[in-house]
Structure formats: structure tokens, C-alpha cells
């Protein structure tokens, strides 16, 4: 039995060793030599691994120099261009030399080390993308946290030259305007989202879905200017109401799409179960579809609020801004992002500090909204 | 005394231009278990969904002909009322995930906004769950979500939900095809018990199941009702060649 096994193994090894090389045309080239040559001589070194590659890269290099001279580009930009050509040569040379390897095991070794390289690259990039957020957070917290105290939250900004002052007008204003925007956008957005998910194949659903996508892409400043002509001009004054309308328009597409996506995930069997019990359609929507998708809809709403609370552009020509606490909807009203905009661009240090404090508050709101959303979706998610 | 509960005359159903149920004539008597069998795509589920007017909810679906429930034309009645009177159990268990077991049983009342007293609710829940042979297993966890139950228990919960509305007729659309053999046998046992009070129409792919549970069997093929007879006669002495081929597994 054992002898049989050994004989078998022996046979297998033989068949393996027989197939240990590929029939690849041409001479085998050393990857190390190709790499070193391209590292030191660029396109010229590439000729060792790939003649075509060398010629192509040489032409590209010459073209870059000629075009650079014609456009009178700086030495630095020329150097950047050539560095890119150089790196391309190294990659090309490495690949071309690798293709000529005939031994299977060597090839597999190369592949494995490439896999490891790609994996570590992905991990590295995944780490890198968290850096901007971390840097912004640290910077704003460092600058802003010292500004925030009870006085800061309950007082209006101080005039130039006076110490202290706060952002109570902007906090209240942002709260009121976001509240009104939500009151306008949430019912409309949810109903539209329900329509889109319930009747996905109708022509109306196709075109309104298209409009939602386009609306999402409309720059916020454009929304602001449209609302200016709709509401501010006829009324003859900047007003909190017009700011709310502009924010509501920004909010709508997010609410619509998130409602639609959430409800589309619900199985049809759920609706059928309710209908087969003799429940009328409108009650099926209210009592079954919306409760089952509630976590998703709510998280969409929260995210849309987090989005509009920091919008400045739509408020520039609508709510405008107000150095005093105001609760009148027909008068200009201050908001956090607008306060940051005006005070950060002012020439006074006290006002800059005010803007840092306001930025900190704004950032905290957005962070808290996002974290609460995550918790809600996890806790209230209906197990299907 | 035997009386007819469902009868259809020259009944046709369509999906757009696709003619899926062709000229079906059938008379179903009260307190019988009817098995509807046939190959996939033969229109048996569509026919079933026509009885409680669930078919027309699919865009493009239409129907033609006479369908009577207790001598009333179903298609002249209010669709909501029809579905009130006819219970339905689906292929996959579909309890409402946002409701507890207790609420799931009385979902028909809750979702319709019918006000009933707490005592009545308790009675209905216990009675329905008992008839669905689920009471013993869940009586201590009535306020847990229905989706925590096993597949077979969920299906029996759906049956309890249908029973709670006190329908005369319950439609089953392949009720055991998503269940394991143990759950299947518990649901099948249930059919025997339900027979006393309700009429059951069961669509099934499974011939053994049809033979085990039904009094009468209807065989659909390519949208036609080929044969409708006592189950025993059907399986021992089928009149139509196509039925015989299907039963003996010689369909080409």
C-alpha cells in the first residue's frame, strides 16, 4: 500500500516537472536586469525588455520635451512629465520581462508577490482616505473648542472692537430654517419616493426619477438664485422663509431617493400578505410599507438634514443674515454657515475666532446627526 | 347537505396578451380539500389568485368569465370585501416583520382599523393559533416578533392570520414548497383539522402531497383544466391521457 503511494507520488512529481515550463516564444529575460536598466536609462533601458516599448516611450518623451518647449513650460513641469514617462518605462519593462518567464513556479512566485503588493496598496489607500477627515476634525476642534462656552451659545456676535459675543442668532436661525425646510421637504419627498418605488415602470416615474437626479446635481448657488427670483424679489425683502424654501429644494432629492431605495428593498410578498387580508391599498402603505421601511427612510431624512445644515450658497441671496436674534420668518435670518462665511472673511481677529467656534458647532451637529443615523438604522431595522 | 362555494364558468385570465388560464369550468363544494396540481407555468397559481382577485393587482393582468363565491359574482363584489371573505396563504411565509406574533394573528383587524376589545383579541388569537397548531409553541412568546419563528412556524402563523378573519375559504399557494419535511408534515396534518370548518384550495407541485391531503384534485395543463375528480379516482384511474402521463411522470 505504502509502496503504491510512493509510486503514485513519484508519478505525480514527474508529470508536474514535465509541465514546469511554458512554450513561450523568444528568449527569457531577467526581470531584475529589466528593472535596473529602466531605472537608470528609462526608455533606452526599456529596449532590453521590449523594443517596441522602448521606441514608443522614447517618442513620448521627445514629444513632451518638444511640446513643453513650444508652450514655454517651466523646468519643473517638464521634469514631472519626464518622471511619469520614467515610471511608465519601469512598469512596462517589468511586465515585459515577466511575460518571458518560462518556469511555472517562478511565475507563480511573481504573481503571489504582486497580490501582496496590491493588497497592501488597497489597505494603505483605505487608510489614506480617512486622513482628510481626521485632519479637518483635529484642526477645527483645536481652533474652535476653546471658543465654545455658555456665553458663546447664548449671546449675539459682539460689534467690532468688543471682546466676547456669541452665535445664538445663527444657532436659532439654522434651527428654525432647517425645521421649516424639513416640514416642507419631508412629506413631499416621502410621498414622491413612495410613488417611485410603487410604480417603477410608469412613464411618470421615469421622468420624475430623472428630474430628481438632475435636481440633485443642480449647484446650490443656482437654487439660491432661483428662489431669490421666486420669493425674495416679489416680497421685496430677504427672508427666513425664502432660505427655508431653498434648503427644502436641496433636501428633496435626498429624501426622495432614500425613501425609494428603502421601499424597493421590501419584498412584494409583504404587500400581498396585507392585500390578501382585505386591507385597502392606502392602509397597506401607511400600516405596512412605511413602518417596515421606517429606519431607512428616517436615516435618509437625517442625512439630508446633515447635508443642508451646512449649505451656505442657497442662503446668500435668500435668508441673507442678521446680526440680531430674529424669529420672524419674513425678515432676514442668520444661519451657522452664513455666519462662518461673513465672519471668516472679515479682517478682525475676534470675528475669526467666532467663525472657528461656529465651524466647530456645525461640525459637531453633522457628526452627531451621522452617528445617530447609524445607530437608528442598526437598532430599528426590521428583520425581514 | 353539500353546497357549492366556488364555481367558475368559462373563466379566462391573461397577462397582457399571454393567455394563462383558458376556459376553466369548476364547482368546488363546501368543506372539501381541493388540490390543484400541474407543471410549472400551467396557470394554477394564477387561477388561485383570480378567486380572491389578487391577480388583477399585477400590472397588465386581466380576466374574463364568471367566478362565483356563494352564488355571487366575485368580479361584481368589492375586491376588498372578497379578500376579507377568502383567506390566503402564500408560498413563502410572510409574517409582518414589524408586528409581534400576537399582532400578526389579528393583523387583518389591526391593519383594517377595526376596533375590537382586548378580551376579544385574546380570544381570537388563542383560537386561531390553536387551530393553526401553534398555540402550544408560542403562547409564552406572543409579544416577540413573528420573524423570530422557524419557517414552518411562520407558515402556521400565516395560516392563523388567515383563520383569524374567519373566512369560509382559504387558498394555499404552494404552502410547503419553502419548508423542510418536518414542517411540511405539520402543515399537512393541519389541513385535515381545518377541513371541518373551512374549504381549502391547495396549489401544489407535489403529487404525493396532493394524494395525501386532498378529497378532490384538479389537474391543470397549459392553462386548461384537464381533469377534476375525486383524488382516489384521479390517481388510480385517470380519464385523460395527459393526466396519466403527468402522474406516472412520462411527460415529454
Identify the notable features of this structure and list them briefly:
heterodimer, A: 384 residues, mainly alpha, MetI-like fold, 2 domains, 18 helices, 77% helix, B: 252 residues, alpha/beta, Rossmann fold, six-stranded mixed β-sheet, four-stranded antiparallel β-sheet, 37% helix, 27% strand
CATH fold-type name of the largest domain in chain A: MetI-like fold
Structural class designation of chain B: alpha/beta
The outline of chain B comes out as globular
Number of helices of chain B: 11
The two chains with the largest interface, and their residue counts, are:
A-B, 23 and 32 residues
CATH superfamily caption of the largest domain in chain A: MetI-like
**Count of alpha and pi helical runs of chain A:** 18
Task: Explain what you see.
The complex is a heterodimer of chains A (384) and B (252). Chain A is mostly helical. Chain A has 2 domains: 102 residues, no CATH class; 231 residues, MetI-like (MetI-like fold). In chain A, 77% of the residues lie in helices and 0% in strands. Chain A contains 18 helices and no strands. Chain B contains 11 helices and 10 strands. The longest helix of chain B has 14 residues. Chain B is an alpha/beta fold. Chain B has a domain of 172 residues: P-loop containing nucleotide triphosphate hydrolases (Rossmann fold). In chain B, the strands form 2 sheets. A 6-stranded mixed β-sheet of chain B has the order 6-7-8-3-9-10, with helices on both faces. In chain B, strands 2-1-4-5 form a 4-stranded antiparallel β-sheet, covered by helices on one side. Chains A and B meet through helix 13 and helix 14 of A and helix 2, helix 4 and helix 7 of B.
Summarize this, please?
Chain A is mainly α. Chain A has helices spanning 2-18, 31-41, 43-49, 51-70, 75-99, 104-128, 130-144, 150-154, 168-198, 203-217, 220-235, 240-265, 268-276, 281-292, 294-308, 313-316, 336-344, 349-380.
